[in-house]
Amino acid sequence: MGGTFLFDGQPVPFEDGQTILQAARAAGRYIPHLCWHPDFPPHGSCKLCIVKVGGRHVSSCALPARDGMEVESNTPEINGERRALLQMLFVEGNHFCPSCEKSGNCQLQALAYELDMSSARFAHFFPDRPVDASHPDVLLDFNRCIFCELCVRASRDVDGKGVFALTDRGIHKHLVVNAESGRLADTDFAVTDRAADICPVGVILRKRVGFAVPIGERKYDRASISTVAMEKGE
Ligand code: FES
């Protein structure tokens, strides 16, 4: 049956079962997101996709579109809240973009540019999260984890391995490897796994290919994440 809703004042059609984010994307309208991925069910954790519907803030990746609803997305208020969420993500982890080999290909960094985030604003937590270089082909830098659980979901639901998990709560929440030793080398993780290429930031990195793409030619060097996401269907 489907219907139509207003997205920032413009009519957007939707089909039954589509979320606001899915319908908006199908209509060429970008909504910032981090934990949502077109190949996986909505997760609803990062809240970057918030929009305003009927005066309430909702996660557009999870809320089904309804006929006649009025959705506000690209407004100073909503973008300001998205910026604050980004700032919290930056201070919760250890994100040093200039020295990170995911720089230029990182969704967190690209969204910070997209939303004009010029400083972290809050005090940094500087959590202590050792890296895991035990695997022959992949390095894990837990410092950059944003808890989107895409690697958890990909490893469990696509690869059928369940290599990753999140543990603890609040500032102590962190990504772990499901092995008695806690080391990636002691799992059956492979560089060909879906989970190896799913991280939107710089946690899961292939060895021996760091900084292979020069500055200026990286994913988000030439176009903003909103443009890239719509072109590539991400
Ligand atoms: Fe919707 Fe993360 S993209 S909550």
Write up what this structure looks like.
By secondary structure, the protein is α+β, with helices and mostly antiparallel strands. The protein folds into 2 domains: 3-74, Ubiquitin-like (UB roll), CATH 3.10.20; 104-227, 2-Layer Sandwich (Alpha-Beta Plaits), CATH 3.30.70.20. It is built from 5 helices and 9 strands; from the N terminus they run ββαβββααβαβββα. The protein has helices spanning 20-26, 76-92, 107-114, 150-158, 225-232; strands spanning 3-7, 10-14, 50-53, 56-59, 70-72, 138-140, 164-167, 174-177, 204-206. A 5-stranded mixed sheet has the order 2-1-5-3-4, with helices on both faces. A two-stranded antiparallel sheet has the order 6-9. The longest helix is centred in the middle third of the chain and has 17 residues, at 76-92. The chain is globular, with a radius of gyration of 18 Å. The relative contact order is 0.14. FE2/S2 (inorganic) cluster is lined by residues 33-36, 44-49, 59, 61. Residues 77-116 form the 4Fe-4S His(Cys)3-ligated-type domain. Belongs to the complex I 75 kDa subunit family. This is 2Fe-2S iron-sulfur cluster binding domain-containing protein.
